[in-house]
Amino acid sequence: MAQNQTKTPGTETKQSTGLAARRAAIEILVTVLNRRQFLGDAINQTKAFKYMPANDRAFARLLVSTVLRRLPEIDQAFQQFLDRPLPKNPKKLFQLLRTGTAQLLFLEMPPHAVVNTSVALANEFRSNKFKGLVNAVLRKVAASKSEVENPAKLNTPDWLWQSWVDQYGEDSATAIGLQHLANPPIDISAKEDPELWAQSLGAELLPTGTIRLTAGGHPSEWAGFEGGHWWIQDAAAAIPVKLLGHIAGKTVIDLCAAPGGKTAQLVNAGATVTAVDISRSRLSRLESNLARLQMSAKTIVADLRQWRPNDPADIVLLDAPCSATGTCRRHPDILRLRNESDVAKLTAIQSTLLDAAAEMVAPGGLLLYVTCSLQPQEGPDQISSFLNRHLNYQRSQFDVSDCKTLESALSADGSLRTLPCHWPNRGGMDGFFAVVLTRFL
Ligand SMILES: C[S@@+](CC[C@H](N)C(=O)[O-])C[C@H]1O[C@@H](n2cnc3c(N)ncnc32)[C@H](O)[C@@H]1O
């Protein structure tokens, strides 16, 4: 096993105490919460973030994620000390108080450092007249504790909470909400020898073959990254492709493929893969990921509402665009930005894409449908209506050998449903829905 890098995860300095990271965090929060942009886009637009040292970037991310995870709890914690409501502008004042409260109550930062840096930033943001207020409020927050009866419920938007209670029951909704409050681990899929790589990275090997790291740090500096021995992929995201069983020598059309975690799995399992995605930039990421892994697949930029292959494939994988409510552990912005009407719009898109995908499967072949949503409309309901429209498809028994330890995720009707609260003491996993369908005509 070649190891051309030697850094061990978790050996980096943990936090910065500088202003730059806090300033960037506030700017990112304004973009997410006031301009309603997704976190990844907000980070990309924040020039200061790009040029900061890695440790400052990590601290800024932690600060932003903590505010997004616990926004209602944080607002409640500092607003109790306001004599009157804050003016809507300046927007940065809100985010400043939120980041200050997050540092004091949830990141255990020293109060004097938090208050001093927050007052300095209030000064910078031309919020001079609020310097006194920032100072007074944060001092009171520092002397308080957040005592919330049900933080999972408080920090989950009502529409999501209700849908999860209806679908999974109150205990599971609570367990899901609790997983969203913590920083998730980093999961890795290895090309081969997961046991050896788990050992070399000082990581845990999960029963499904995923390597799990709880230490923070910069994966691109870890052993095996540059040599292309592994890629980052959530434990639950790695399961759907495994349900296909033995696929060596099969042709697979991987629809909505970028950034390519599942493409890598398919190629690694010996399939001949065509990867299709509408986004040129996301497909470029897929291509560079595959190049690093020394893997190859045919790539096509296309909108699959119009695109059709020359020949049908043995297997078609549709990892459809969705509300991504199963990924709030790593994307807490979803909690604050998504709403019910997004789910309705995405459900309609998924059914169009499913109809397109159905035409690409050879008779006798398989259609694997996947979403990272917890919403039933994007999972089981979507498949029931697909089967009503396509009488030449039926549910297929899938290969469960890799999921024996996850029996609660497998349902009697032959579908996979992982929840963020599966394996709660190991750090959970993303919420995925997957089903394998056979085309018999
Ligand atoms: C959930 S992500 C796919 C994740 C990917 N399969 C993986 O495992 O890394 C959904 C993808 O669908 C793509 N997409 C959305 N609408 C599309 C369309 N009409 N045609 C093709 N791709 C589309 C997006 O660009 C996005 O990359």
Brief summary of the model shown:
The protein is of the alpha/beta class. The protein contains 18 helices and 13 strands.
Supply database-style keywords.
441 residues, binds S-adenosylmethionine, 13 strands, nine-stranded mixed beta sheet, N-utilizing Substance Protein B Homolog, Chain A, Rossmann fold, alpha/beta
Write the layout of secondary structure elements.
Layout: H1 19-34, H2 39-45, H3 47-50, H4 54-69, H5 71-79, H6 91-105, H7 111-124, H8 131-142, H9 151-154, H10 158-168, H11 170-179, E1 186-190, H12 194-200, E2 204-205, E3 211-213, E4 230-232, H13 239-242, E5 251-255, H14 261-268, E6 272-277, H15 280-292, E7 298-301, E8 313-319, H16 333-337, H17 340-358, E9 361-371, H18 380-389, E10 393-395, E11 410-411, E12 415-417, E13 433-439
Helix pairs in contact: 1-2, 1-4, 1-6, 4-6, 5-6, 6-7, 6-8, 7-8, 10-11
Bound molecules: S-adenosylmethionine.
S-adenosylmethionine is lined by residues 256-262, 276-279, 282, 303-305, 319, 321.
Number of strands: 13
Assign the CATH superfamily of the largest domain: Vaccinia Virus protein VP39
Helical fraction: 40-55%
List the domain count as a whole number. Answer: 2
Largest sheet: 9 strands, mixed
Radius of gyration: 23 Å
SS-based class: alpha/beta
Can you tell me the CATH architecture of the largest domain?
3-Layer(aba) Sandwich
Cα separation of the termini: 46 Å
Question: Average pLDDT, to the nearest integer?
Answer: 92
Total of DSSP H or I helical runs spanning 4+ residues? 18
CATH topology (fold) name of the largest domain: Rossmann fold
Low-confidence stretches: 1-16
For this structure, what is the CATH class of the largest domain?
Alpha Beta
Shape: globular
List each distinct ligand once: S-adenosylmethionine
| DSSP strand content | 5-15%
